[in-house]
Amino acid sequence: MNFRRYRILPVILLLAVLLVQPVLSEANVTEFITGKNVTSVTNQTADLEQDVATKYFNYAQRQLAGCGDTCDYPGIISLYDRALSENLTMLKKTDGLQYLYQGKTYALIQMKNFTGAVTTAEAGLAVYPKDPMLWNNKGWALEQLGRKQDALAAYDKAVSFDGNYTNALINQGNLLAGMGKYKEASAAFIRANETDPFNVAAADGLDVARKGEADSSRTMSILMGIILVAVIGIVIWYVKFRKPAEPEPQGKKKKAGKR
Predict the structure, then answer these.
(1) How many Å separate Cα 206 from the centre of its chain?
(2) Does pTM top 0.85 for this prediction?
């Protein structure tokens, strides 16, 4: 029996373990750090040469969807911007570019960069003029900037393109109620409640709008009553205290009668 050959086998096995170990360690560390995103990140890296814009867009979307209350909005916006700086041919062939503008507008709103949100929404609407979400996001940003009439027009556009868009209807109702247009606000909340019967914001908004409408009607009735009393008082005063007209001199009457 050749014992030398068997002594060599453990050495070969040891070398194999040493060669494979760094790869296994790197894989384990990567899996621990990135969790379930390892496969998708690897795939995206492999697809980098094919479409860079899609890669950055996917990165941004994945971060926006999974970050919860700890979103790195500046980082997400940076990824969207990097996607926009690349060739957009593939994104335009899909809905990717549309989602990009939606996501970037949303991220800017979360950062309270309302001017930037309006600009981004308008850029998206130049390509997708019938996108209700972009109209809604633009309306919200405009409202925060104090441009209420423009915001209302944007909400109207959103609802015109999607009559079942609950959030746009609620935003529309809230703005109308804030402007004292309670009847129109009630109509918006009623429609929102029809699209989502269990929506708390729609139900609460409708209660506020109806209360405002009732208070407004009551105030108007009181005001009309005050005006009516004032008019009656003026008429009575005029009839009772007005000075009677003095009779004209006799001579003037005769002069007026000559021919």
Answers:
(1) 20
(2) no
For residue 38, count other CB atoms closer than 10 A to its CB: 14
Residue 195 and residue 164 in contact, taking contact as beta carbons nearer than 8 Å: yes
According to CATH, the topology of domain 163-241 is 1.25.40
Nearest alpha carbon to residue 152 among 129, 180, 174: 174
Is residue 239 predicted with pLDDT exceeding 80? no
Q: Measured between alpha carbons, how far is 226 from 93 in angstroms, rounded to an integer?
A: 65
Q: What is the pLDDT of residue 67?
A: 85
Element counts in the chain: helices (H) and strands (E)? 13, 0
**Fold identical between 48-154 and 163-241?**
yes
- The model's pLDDT over 159-196, given as tens digits with 9 standing for 90+, comes to 999 999 999 999 999 999 999 999 999 999 999 999 99
Q: What one-character DSSP code corresponds to residue 259?
A: -
What distance in Å separates the CA atoms of residue 174 and residue 189, rounded to the nearest whole number? 8
Question: Quick one: 222 exposed, middle or buried, by C-beta within 10 A (0-12, 13-18, 19+)?
Answer: exposed
Question: Which tokens go with 204?
Answer: 């609460």
Structure confidence at residue 250 as a pLDDT band (50, 70, 90): low
Residue with tokens 């790197």: 26
Structure tokens at 186: 């009630």
CATH class in words for 48-154? mainly alpha
pLDDT in tens, 28-68: 222 223 232 222 333 545 554 578 999 999 999 999 998 88
Domain ranges in the chain are 48-154, 163-241
The DSSP string of 134-200 is: HHHHHHHHHHHTT-HHHHHHHHHHHHHH-TT-HHHHHHHHHHHHHTT-HHHHHHHHHHHHHH-TT-H
